[in-house]
Amino acid sequence: PSTERSVAEFAQGLIKAGLMDGTVADAVPARSIAAFFNGELGQRLLRAETVRREVEFNLRIGARELLGADTDETVLLQGVIDACFREKDGWVLLDYKTDRLRDQPAAAAAEKHRRQVELYASVLRNLTGIPVKEKYIVFLTEKEVAAL
Asked: For residues 95 and 116, is the Cβ–Cβ distance under 8 A?
């Protein structure tokens, strides 16, 4: 099981190996990360045979589709999918946020990220040919998850 201590030790190992900066490790408390991996969604991720993290992409997309612009020009969309894992019937997409919820429900806070996550789901489907069956915003610092 993930514990605050095991997460903190893992982060320290990444820092010592030069794979992570100390300020990044301090951005989200180990307690919050452990809580995520001990929850239902985190357990599904740990059981998945295929897990992808930090998936960088470049995609040409119509300005009309992306921005609602009145043109047929294309633009280059670049981004990074935080994490996704595959289950037998499709991908599950995760987008991590450190937003503070400020007394609003996680579902309401997640709505401002809907367009971004929808685009990421489209990219993932186009890259792999496999449907995205679920999309989540994971508010790590708040220990909340919202489905989109």
From this structure: yes
Burial 59-94 (b: 16+ CB within 10 A, else e): beeeeeeeeeeeeeeeeebeeebbbbbbeeeebbbb
Contacts of 120 (CB under 8 A, 6+ apart): 79, 81, 93, 95, 135
Q: How far apart are CA 54 and CA 93, in angstroms?
A: 11
Beta bridge partners of 60: 76
Calpha distance 128→24 (Å, rounded): 30
- Quote the pTM value: 0.85
Residue 113: its pLDDT value, please? 95
Q: The sheet that has 74-87: what strands, in order across it? A: 50-62, 74-87, 90-97, 132-139, 144-147
Distance of CA 37 to the CA centre of its chain: 14
Beta-ladder partners of 96: 138
Q: How far apart are CA 65 and CA 85, in angstroms?
A: 27
Q: Residue 26: its pLDDT value, please? A: 77
Helices (H) and strands (E) in the chain, counts: 7, 5
Residue 1 pLDDT: 63
